[in-house]
């Protein structure tokens, strides 16, 4: 994860470097904004504001060995005072183990903070932005400490940034789902997004093992659900228009034909989650068209841009995608 400031400084790769750039002015407008300041500060150390935490040295990646040992020694002494006192090897083992856990948790939280700052810096905060509620942050902190992969850290950063930008946009149900997701599930969401038609559904192709595998993953955590057969209806000239990414995929059938297909639809949790990501720039037009063409009711699949005027869509630059 890297964050580059407006002045064109070298990309920052750690929390300390991000905050250094912020304090130099590159991202100061972001960090100085109370919603981001309070949320990131809370994530790192209770309700302490980020600049204060940084200036006091709390946000340094390397923690004092002496301070860590004091904390861990106290914890070990409370739970196993007699055994630890009698066995120095056990004491050292406990110190090593808890130091590693403390370091891993802190690195996970800092990685999420870095990515959140990077996402928020892409545009100014809206006027109604606000620090997340206490119950949200309490749940979020526990999840952030367990972020062990880049994809999970990135998803968590988008969740926090989304909640700052638009308060109450991420439900507690969605946050609970995020808390049980692993890297494979995040990849399944990323696989699904560029295949979604409006409003939030996609064709479930038969005999496509890769699609089925990703569909099972998102269904297992209530992000999407497969539906019973639903009708596709051709218009008077045989066009079935499917809106995706600012364009139409047009499955050409016979005029007024109607037939049934299986679909995969996002749940409310899935819609909240997908809204956190930026718009897709490379929808899988050809891949989807090839799967639609396998349907016996479809003669060919076209692609076009469109304009909306006086309550109607008009095709622009229509061309054959799969003959």
What is this structure's SSE topology?
Blueprint: H1 15-24, H2 28-31, H3 34-45, H4 50-55, H5 65-86, H6 88-120, H7 134-144, H8 150-165, H9 172-180, H10 183-192, E1 201-203, H11 209-220, E2 224-226, E3 230-233, E4 239-244, E5 247-252, E6 258-261, E7 263-266, H12 268-275, H13 285-293, E8 300-309, E9 312-322
Helix pairs in contact: 3-6, 5-6, 6-8, 7-9, 10-11
Notes on the protein architecture:
- Helix 6 (88-120) packs across helix 8 and helix 7 packs parallel to helix 9 (172-180).
- The two termini are 42 Å apart.
- The model is unreliable at 1-13, 21-32 and 46-59 (pLDDT under 50).
- The chain has helices at residues 15-24, 28-31, 34-45, 50-55, 65-86, 88-120, 134-144, 150-165, 172-180, 183-192, 209-220, 268-275, 285-293; strands spanning 201-203, 224-226, 230-233, 239-244, 247-252, 258-261, 263-266, 300-309, 312-322.
- Strands 4-5-8-9 form a 4-stranded antiparallel sheet. A 3-stranded antiparallel sheet has the order 1-7-2.
- With 323 residues, the chain is of the alpha+beta class.
- The chain has 2 domains: 1-180, no CATH class; 197-267 and 282-322, no CATH class.
Overall shape: elongated
Whole-number total of structural domains: 2
Order of SSEs, N→C? Answer: HHHHHHHHHHEHEEEEEEHHEE
Spatial strand order of the main sheet: 4-5-8-9
Number of helices: 13
Distance between the termini: 42 Å
Round the mean pLDDT to the nearest integer and report it: 75
Strand content is 15-25%
* Sheet/helix structural class: alpha+beta
Largest sheet: 4 strands, antiparallel
**What gyration radius follows from the Cα positions, in whole Å?**
25 Å
Number of strands: 9
What is the helix content? 40-55%
Q: Uncertain regions: pLDDT < 50 for 5+ in a row? A: 1-13, 21-32, 46-59
